[in-house]
Amino acid sequence: MTRIIGGVAGGRRIAVPPTGTRPTSDRVREALFSALEARGVIEDAEVLDLYAGSGALGIEALSRGASTAVLVERDPRACAVIQANARVAGVRGATVRRSAVLAFLRRTPAPVDLVLLDPPYREPADSLDAVLALLPRWTRSGGLVVLERDARSPAPAWPEGLEPEEPRTYGETTLHLATAA
């Protein structure tokens, strides 16, 4: 179990899929969403949560005022957990899409204000690079992309159209941010 940190669902416990999921720690989620709120990124935002796992990131965004969140996850058990978590949290605007992230991104884009990515730490670099290469089409100008990685992982290869910011490290986790041109 983990919990939603802030917003209308703050403090509510949500489930974690039984296997293969590493939810973002409460500490990292709190730091991330505090920074996003300070920048005015969350309120009324349209959010894309890739490698959604438990749905904690997308649901946290909805709890804090995002208008919609599309949560993309390939594991059907995790998708069921995400749907249950959105109900438990009492948030509106969550849409769960069962799909591999790369296959989802190859569709006609519906640009959003905020893209959250929490891929498995062992995701191959070439696979992650292919995902990142498609994100400029999915991110509105001035929108933000947030990538969570193991602190020991190399910096991501941001594609043209995404301007990287200084990474932020919290223990074993690094958050890489980039703004869409």
From TrEMBL:
Keywords: Methyltransferase, Transferase. GO terms for biological process: rRNA methylation. CDD domains: AdoMet_MTases. GO terms for molecular function: methyltransferase activity; nucleic acid binding. SUPFAM superfamilies: S-adenosyl-L-methionine-dependent methyltransferases. PROSITE patterns: N6_MTASE. Pfam families: Cons_hypoth95. It comes from the Bacteria. Residues 154-173 are annotated as: Disordered. This is 16S rRNA (Guanine966-N2)-methyltransferase. The lineage of its organism: Bacteria, Bacillati, Actinomycetota, Actinomycetes, Pseudonocardiales.
